[in-house]
Each structure stands twice: as C-alpha cells, then as structure tokens.
C-alpha cells in the first residue's frame, strides 16, 4: 500500500486515521486517529455515529485508552508513533478519487458543492491537471458537517507552486470569493490552535496573516495542503535515521524557505544559537510534519523556535547533522525574532 499525506485509512475496528508524511515502514503506515465510533458522537455515516478528535494530545490519550496496539516505538524515527498495520486497513481513501466522484455526482450536499466550487477555479487558474488535486479531511470520508472546513490537497512541486501563486493573486482580487482571514477570524483561529501549540496572539496574527493556503471561501474555512509527488521523494524508510537528542530553544536565520510551503515542511537555517537545551551542532534545519508550520518564515528572517533536536544520519548521502523538529508537543513553536 502506498499512502501519503492527506490520505485517510479506515481500520477493521471502525476507526479512521489520517496519514502523516510520505515515508513509512513496509508493513505499517504512520497515521493518527481522526474519527472513532461513539454513540454520542456528532458525525453520522449510514447507521454509524463517529466523534472527531482534534488536538495531538487528545489523539494520544484516546489511542492509549482505546487503541493501544497502534502505538509502537519506531526505531527509525526514535519515537513512539501511531502506526497502522497494513493488514488492519479496511479501506484506503484517496483525495484525488474523491474529487473525481464529486465532479461526477448530481446529488452533492452544500458542503460538497462548495468544495467543488473552490477546486474548479483553483485548478483552472493554476493550469494544473485534475490528477494533481484532491479533497481531504472530513469530506473525503463523508463525515463532514454543515460548518466543516474545506481541505483541498495538491500534489507535485510545480503544481503546488502554481496553486500557491494563484492563491496570492486571488487574495489581491477584491472580487475573488477566496479571502484572507480578517483580524477577528484570526483571533478565532488562534483560540482553536493555541490549545495545541504555544504562541502569543500578536505573533500569531503577524505570521498567519501572510499565509495564502488558508482563509475563507464563501464564508467557509479552507486549508490547502501542498504535497510532493512520489517521484520527488528519494528517501525510503530506513535510509535516514533520526535520533532523539534532547529538547531545545534556538535562534537562527532562515537561508532557504523553498520547502516551507509543503507538508511536511522544512527550513534551511544558519547561525543557530542554542538558547536553551543541549549544545549540539550543526543544527542546519527546522522541520515539521504539521501544516500549521508551513510558511512560518521567509528567507533572511530570524526565528526563535523550540522543539526536539534530532541527530539525522543519512546513509545514502553519507551525511550527519542536527535538525529541530517542531509540532509534536504543545510547547513547540516557531516565531519571528
């Protein structure tokens, strides 16, 4: 099974997981629980009722309580992760196929119609093929509500760059239905995200207001993930080892933000000053598997970031260096200095 960021998996015990990243063990998929069966849940599909899990800490708590066998220590990532065995997967949900279904259906509900109305002009203005765009999130598995977000996903670096450019143009067009968040809407977004990620409100507004892949479409929140194609990924599971080397707070300058729009995202940095934590060097990048840390900083900007230091050993390139991984704990953050 080839599963990647944005795909969802339904297991034989009725839970639904969202796939993280593009590098997975041969017999398991790194994916975190998103929906689970619960009689008092507010999501319905056929005769079943589900509840959605939001924060990462809540997901881990739920896994420990109800699905402990999915929590395993992964020796490559040197961390306890949620990994779904391939033989436990009942159904694999593909965002591209879902969008194809929406385009061919004459019985769409209001949320599905809105998702289609967002992806159609985005595809046209960016001049990308339909095979490069899909719909993820709750719409993908038919568990959306009337106020659910729209979660398009785009594949391939060139396609992603075109879409990102189109979004920026839409933001500058007063007649476009695609709008950036207002100050009030950013405050609401802050209230939601601050439960899972530490950040000052003023800094949050300053950073998030610059991002084009999120905003409002016809009064509905959207979040667009940009993901590389399979043929652009040259890392197989085990080629690179990631060793937990402590927790740190650093100050550094971004020297290459070209990977910042993708999920997972990456920032090449220089002159990393370790403000707190183990004095390890060289720390040459900041990385995250979470979309909320995309476009967090630009070339030449100085950032302060806090997260887990990992020693990265790349056997294919015969390289070893340190990176700061952010997004695994509520105390992780990255802000402009």
At a glance:
The protein is an alpha+beta fold. Helices cover 22% and strands 36% of the residues.
Low-confidence stretches: none
- Indicate the radius of gyration in whole angstroms: 20 Å
Percent of residues in helices comes to: 10-25%
SSE order, as H and E? EEEEEHEEEHHEHEHEHHEEEEEEEEE
Please outline the major beta sheet: 8 strands, antiparallel
* Mean model confidence by pLDDT: 95
Total strand segments: 20
Distance between the termini: 42 Å
The number of helical runs is 7
Structural class: alpha+beta
The geometry reads as globular
Strand content: 35-45%
Q: Could you explain the architecture of this structure?
A:
The chain is an alpha+beta fold and 337 residues long. Helices cover 22% and strands 36% of the residues. It contains 7 helices and 20 strands. The strands form 4 sheets. Strands 1, 2, 3, 4, 5, 6, 7 and 8 form an 8-stranded antiparallel β-sheet that branches. A 5-stranded mixed barrel has the order 15-16-17-19-18. β1 and β2 form a beta hairpin.
Structural key phrases:
alpha+beta; eight-stranded antiparallel sheet; five-stranded mixed β-barrel
Could you give the topology of this structure?
Blueprint: E1 8-11, E2 16-19, E3 28-37, E4 43-45, E5 48-52, H1 56-66, E6 71-74, E7 79-85, E8 89-93, H2 95-103, H3 110-126, E9 133-135, H4 137-140, E10 152-155, H5 157-171, E11 178-179, H6 183-193, H7 201-208, E12 214-217, E13 220-223, E14 225-227, E15 240-256, E16 265-276, E17 283-288, E18 302-314, E19 319-326, E20 333-336
Parallel strand pairs: 10-14, 17-19
Antiparallel strand pairs: 1-2, 1-8, 2-3, 3-5, 3-7, 4-5, 6-7, 9-10, 11-12, 12-13, 15-16, 15-18, 16-17, 18-19, 18-20
């Amino acid at each position: 099974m080839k599963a990647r960021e944005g795909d969802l998996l339904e297991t034989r015990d009725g839970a639904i997981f969202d796939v993280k990243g593009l590098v997975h063990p041969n017999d398991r998929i790194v994916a975190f629980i998103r929906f689970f069966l619960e009689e008092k849940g507010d999501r319905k599909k056929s005769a079943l009722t589900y509840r959605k899990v939001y924060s990462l800490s809540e997901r881990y708590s739920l896994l420990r309580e109800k699905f402990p066998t999915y929590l395993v220590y992964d020796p490559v990532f040197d961390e306890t992760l949620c990994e779904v065995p391939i033989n436990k997967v009942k159904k694999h949900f593909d965002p591209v196929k879902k969008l194809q279904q929406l385009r061919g259906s004459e019985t769409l509900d209001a949320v599905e119609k809105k998702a289609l109305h967002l992806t159609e002009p985005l595809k046209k203005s960016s001049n990308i093929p339909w095979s490069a765009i899909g719909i993820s999130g709750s719409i993908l598995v038919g568990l959306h509500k009337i106020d659910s977000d729209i979660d398009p996903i785009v594949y391939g670096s060139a396609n992603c760059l075109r879409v990102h450019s189109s979004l920026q143009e839409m933001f500058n067009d007063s007649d476009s239905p695609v709008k950036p968040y207002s100050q009030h809407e950013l405050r609401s977004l802050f209230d939601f995200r601050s439960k899972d990620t530490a950040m000052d409100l003023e800094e949050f507004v300053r950073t998030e207001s610059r991002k084009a892949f999120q905003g409002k479409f016809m009064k509905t929140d959207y979040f667009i993930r940009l993901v590389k194609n399979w043929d652009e990924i040259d890392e197989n599971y085990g080629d690179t080892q990631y060793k937990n080397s402590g927790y740190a707070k650093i100050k550094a300058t971004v020297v290459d933000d070209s990977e910042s729009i993708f999920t997972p995202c990456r920032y090449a940095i220089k002159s990393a000053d370790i403000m707190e934590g183990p004095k390890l060097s060289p720390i040459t990048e900041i990385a995250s598997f979470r979309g909320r840390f995309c476009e967090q900083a630009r070339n030449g900007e100085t950032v302060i970031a806090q997260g887990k230091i990992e020693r990265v050993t790349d056997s294919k390139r015969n390289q070893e260096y340190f990176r700061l991984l952010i997004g695994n704990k509520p105390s992780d953050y990255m802000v402009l200095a």
